[in-house]
Amino acid sequence: MAHRSDESLNDDASYASYDDDSYASYASFDASSSSSENEPQDEYGVNGYMNVNLGELYNNRYKIVKKLGWGVFSTVWAAKDEKRDRWVAIKIFKCDPEFDDVVKTEVEIIKQLMNAAPENANHTINLYDIFKHQSNYGRHVCLVYELLGCHLLKISRIFKHRNKTVPLRLLRKVIRQCMEAFSYIHSKNIIHTDLKPENILIVPDERYIELMLMDNNEETKKLLEEHIYAMFEAGNVQIKIADWGNACWTNKHFSDQIQTFQYQAPEVIIGYRYNTKADIWSLACVFYELATNEYLFDARYDSDDDSYSSDDEEYRNTHLLLDMKHVIGDCPRSFALKGNDSRCYFNHSGKLRAKDIDKSDIGVLEALQNDLDAYTDSRHPEDEVKDFAEFLQYLLVYVPDKRPSAEASLKHPYLA
């Protein structure tokens, strides 16, 4: 449906640095390969980043091996846990006290997922350790995670570079793992709130880690990309859900504005109460994108439209709702008018206020077929395409109370 721009797909731009909103980048093998590889040097010092050197030992056990990336709140490093003989990723926060609440919530949610029923938490990232390190400027909280591989957007790009899309038979295995993960996560009344391909990571094997920790030269990148492609083609991929920094509980929200734009559920747009079903909407958008390398909903119809601004939230949301209408039909009036912001987008009859774009309604199946047909080296069996489209349609229900849960989706014929 909506094209991911070259800028967002550029290897260096998308994977150059760790983003605190996405654990995915810390695991990317080309994490430090661009001009934006380094965090602002003037943000070291008071309330800032901690100086970290390769070879240093932290907490008497973690030997720093390689810088993986950085973000607004922290830097992230690969390290060898010499006590347990395993590889880890250490997220080292700035020593600014204002980040304490961010860390506290992140840790609390991950610990709840790990401790409540460990046997069911195999698709969520493991937090191994927490410690504080005193620098010249203050105390830095350090979170020690398992070392994971690249995110799923990288997988789809690897296929795209070969003029292919991810085979639907392989994608189905990933979808099932995602739904198993969220069946468990949602049973603990936790909402992720920021699902996107960058926040779903793969578990690396020994060869992957070996390549990832090598120098970032072109030969290493090529070898690792080939290894990732072979792993996926063989169906040997296990996923983990990461980035819990924006998560919340069903009975304790931290913000009314959640989710990245292209994966935002309709209830969030209109200001209606949200729950775990918001994650289900995002997952449907993620699955479509992984299959096609295109956004399902994006709303960027006309680049010549001078009235469009990425900062104009109402304009953007209106056109996102229009995009939804073109793919899955009209939003039911009974729901469209329930939100605190509904009147910004719908009239009293429940019709979208915006002038419709000259674009025909096509449905999920046609959108899917159109985007898949763009890749001449991939040919998907017709029945697989139809089954996948039907499953997406099953998930993409406007009314959250009628949208299926992750647990229910596991019983759908597509995954059963």
Structural class: alpha+beta
Named CATH architecture of the largest domain: Orthogonal Bundle
Number of helices: 15
The H-and-E topology, N to C, reads as EHHHEEEEHEEHHEEHHEEHHEHHHHH
Proportion of residues in helical segments: 25-40%
The number of distinct β-strands equals: 12
Strand content: 5-15%
Rg computed from alpha carbons, rounded to a whole number of angstroms: 22 Å
For the biggest β-sheet, the strand order reads 2-3-4-5-7-6
Shape: globular
Top CATH class of the largest domain = Mainly Alpha
Overall residue-averaged pLDDT value = 86
N-to-C span: 28 Å
Low-confidence stretches: 5-35
Notes on the protein architecture:
- Residues 62-415 form the Protein kinase domain.
- Its EC number is 2.7.11.1.
- One of its GO terms (biological process) is spliceosomal complex assembly.
- It is globular, with a radius of gyration of 22 Å.
- The two termini are 28 Å apart.
- It has helices at 6-9, 11-15, 24-27, 100-116, 152-160, 168-187, 206-212, 218-233, 266-269, 277-292, 313-328, 333-336, 363-372, 382-395, 406-409, and strands at 2-3, 57-58, 62-70, 74-81, 86-93, 127-135, 138-146, 190-191, 200-202, 239-241, 248-249, 294-295.
- The chain folds into two domains: 15-146, Phosphorylase Kinase, domain 1 (2-Layer Sandwich), CATH 3.30.200; 152-203 and 238-409, Orthogonal Bundle (Transferase(Phosphotransferase), domain 1), CATH 1.10.510.10.
- The chain has a six-stranded antiparallel β-sheet.
- The longest helix has 20 residues, at 168-187.
- Residues 5-35 have low confidence and may be disordered.
- The protein contains 15 helices and twelve strands.
- It is of the alpha+beta class and 416 residues long.
